[in-house]
Amino acid sequence: MLVTKISELPGHQNPIFTIEPSQKAGIIFTAGNDKGVVEWSLARMEFIKVMFPVRTSVYALHCVPGKPLMAVGERSGEIGIFDFLEQKIIARLQHHQLPVFDLKSAPEKDELLAASEDGTVSVWSLSDFKLVYRFPVAADTVRVIAVAPTTNLVAFGCKDSMISVYNLLDYTLVCRLPGHTLPVTSLQFSPDERYLLSGSRDAQLKIWNVAGMNLHESIPAHLFTIYDIKFHPTLPFFATASRDKSIKLWSAEDFKLRRTISREKGYDIHRLSINKIAWDPARGYLVSVGDDKLVMTWEIDPEE
């Protein structure tokens, strides 16, 4: 693989915790320990504007597929709903008293799921923004959510090192997957939903067979916490990002390492923890954010 750094965008004054592609091609949003959610252009590689202010640090952003909405999960536990057409916050969902760490939607059900430090998941209607359901998942923090809409599964990664898999239709427990030794910090279903990938503070990347809910492979992927896992939108590979200040690119077919993006390998990458990554569907760029307050864009040529 040939990896080329396209841009390095400053602007944030504090660490960036999350990044999310817009429903509109070429636009991304970032947020963190700053006072607002920021909009960037990947076409021009530049800052556009601060979309709106926030009251506390933002840990999660989620642009709802098929709707002009973005959900914002804050440290306070509040979830803001921003309407792109009205260009304002149209609802504030107040239920959790502790931070909301992840947000995902179930499009077929028109619902929004929120994972919190209080150990529960809340389910909200995307029609009227009312609380539909709430259920306990762990005794402590639920850190991350992954949704598999075709197989009707939703997985939650927890601070107690467990992965809890639920039925997406009625939110009944399917199974719990032990294996990690420290908190689970990243989860992602493969595009064909055959595999569930998990990353942890134990630096292990685990691949689970969805059909049998059993461990397929365990890989010592990084030196420190794996904070994110993201599959390329069209090509058979995925990326992992870590507190060890590196991004690694892997084959989605045999789970072999294809490339390491790190300072040790000669790349001008983040100097502090890489907290989140995202693929730009329009151009195939990989975008990374971290504690160094920078937004970096990478071009990946898998054929090199």
Automatic annotation (TrEMBL):
<feature type="repeat" description="WD">
    <location>
        <begin position="9"/>
        <end position="50"/>
    </location>
</feature>
<keyword id="KW-0853">WD repeat</keyword>
<dbReference type="InterPro" id="IPR045183">
    <property type="entry name" value="Ebi-like"/>
</dbReference>
<keyword id="KW-0677">Repeat</keyword>
<dbReference type="InterPro" id="IPR019775">
    <property type="entry name" value="WD40_repeat_CS"/>
</dbReference>
<feature type="repeat" description="WD">
    <location>
        <begin position="267"/>
        <end position="304"/>
    </location>
</feature>
<feature type="repeat" description="WD">
    <location>
        <begin position="93"/>
        <end position="134"/>
    </location>
</feature>
<dbReference type="GO" id="GO:0003714">
    <property type="term" value="F:transcription corepressor activity"/>
</dbReference>
<dbReference type="InterPro" id="IPR036322">
    <property type="entry name" value="WD40_repeat_dom_sf"/>
</dbReference>
<feature type="repeat" description="WD">
    <location>
        <begin position="177"/>
        <end position="210"/>
    </location>
</feature>
<dbReference type="InterPro" id="IPR001680">
    <property type="entry name" value="WD40_rpt"/>
</dbReference>
<feature type="repeat" description="WD">
    <location>
        <begin position="219"/>
        <end position="260"/>
    </location>
</feature>
<protein>
    <submittedName>
        <fullName>WD40 repeat domain-containing protein</fullName>
    </submittedName>
</protein>
<dbReference type="InterPro" id="IPR015943">
    <property type="entry name" value="WD40/YVTN_repeat-like_dom_sf"/>
</dbReference>
<dbReference type="InterPro" id="IPR020472">
    <property type="entry name" value="WD40_PAC1"/>
</dbReference>
<dbReference type="Pfam" id="PF00400">
    <property type="entry name" value="WD40"/>
</dbReference>
<dbReference type="GO" id="GO:0006357">
    <property type="term" value="P:regulation of transcription by RNA polymerase II"/>
</dbReference>
